[in-house]
Write a structure and sequence with these properties.
Elements lengths: L1 H23 L3 H6 L1 H28 L1
Protein name: Heme/copper-type cytochrome/quinol oxidase subunit 2
Organism: Cytobacillus eiseniae
Keywords: Membrane, Transmembrane, Transmembrane helix
Length: 63
Protein backbone atom coordinates (compact mmCIF):
# COMPACT_ATOMS: atom_id res chain seq x y z
CA UNK A 1 0.00 0.00 0.00
CA UNK A 2 2.83 2.39 0.83
CA UNK A 3 4.41 1.68 -2.53
CA UNK A 4 1.19 2.58 -4.36
CA UNK A 5 0.82 5.82 -2.41
CA UNK A 6 4.44 6.68 -3.16
CA UNK A 7 3.92 6.14 -6.89
CA UNK A 8 0.74 8.24 -6.93
CA UNK A 9 2.54 11.11 -5.19
CA UNK A 10 5.55 10.74 -7.48
CA UNK A 11 3.38 10.70 -10.61
CA UNK A 12 1.48 13.78 -9.47
CA UNK A 13 4.66 15.71 -8.78
CA UNK A 14 6.12 14.62 -12.10
CA UNK A 15 2.98 15.79 -13.92
CA UNK A 16 3.12 19.20 -12.22
CA UNK A 17 6.82 19.67 -12.98
CA UNK A 18 6.52 18.59 -16.61
CA UNK A 19 3.48 20.80 -17.11
CA UNK A 20 5.36 23.82 -15.76
CA UNK A 21 8.41 23.02 -17.90
CA UNK A 22 6.40 22.70 -21.09
CA UNK A 23 4.37 25.82 -20.31
CA UNK A 24 7.50 27.93 -20.02
CA UNK A 25 8.62 27.03 -23.55
CA UNK A 26 7.03 28.54 -26.62
CA UNK A 27 6.59 31.96 -28.12
CA UNK A 28 6.34 35.07 -25.96
CA UNK A 29 2.84 36.16 -27.00
CA UNK A 30 1.39 32.77 -26.20
CA UNK A 31 2.79 32.95 -22.69
CA UNK A 32 1.01 36.22 -22.01
CA UNK A 33 -2.26 34.97 -23.45
CA UNK A 34 -2.18 31.69 -21.53
CA UNK A 35 -2.13 33.08 -17.98
CA UNK A 36 -5.81 32.25 -17.58
CA UNK A 37 -5.19 28.70 -18.82
CA UNK A 38 -2.31 28.32 -16.37
CA UNK A 39 -4.52 29.47 -13.51
CA UNK A 40 -7.26 27.05 -14.54
CA UNK A 41 -4.82 24.16 -14.86
CA UNK A 42 -3.32 24.92 -11.45
CA UNK A 43 -6.79 24.98 -9.94
CA UNK A 44 -7.56 21.61 -11.54
CA UNK A 45 -4.38 20.17 -9.99
CA UNK A 46 -5.28 21.51 -6.55
CA UNK A 47 -8.83 20.13 -6.72
CA UNK A 48 -7.64 16.75 -8.03
CA UNK A 49 -5.03 16.45 -5.28
CA UNK A 50 -7.55 17.37 -2.57
CA UNK A 51 -10.11 14.88 -3.89
CA UNK A 52 -7.41 12.20 -4.09
CA UNK A 53 -6.34 12.81 -0.51
CA UNK A 54 -9.94 12.71 0.72
CA UNK A 55 -10.62 9.51 -1.24
CA UNK A 56 -7.46 7.93 0.17
CA UNK A 57 -8.45 8.91 3.71
CA UNK A 58 -11.91 7.41 3.24
CA UNK A 59 -10.41 4.23 1.80
CA UNK A 60 -7.99 3.88 4.70
CA UNK A 61 -10.75 4.64 7.22
CA UNK A 62 -13.08 2.00 5.74
CA UNK A 63 -10.50 -0.79 5.55
Amino acid sequence: MKTAIFFVILLTLLAVVLTLIFMSKGDQNYGDASKRNTTNLSLIYVVAILISIIALAIYIWLT
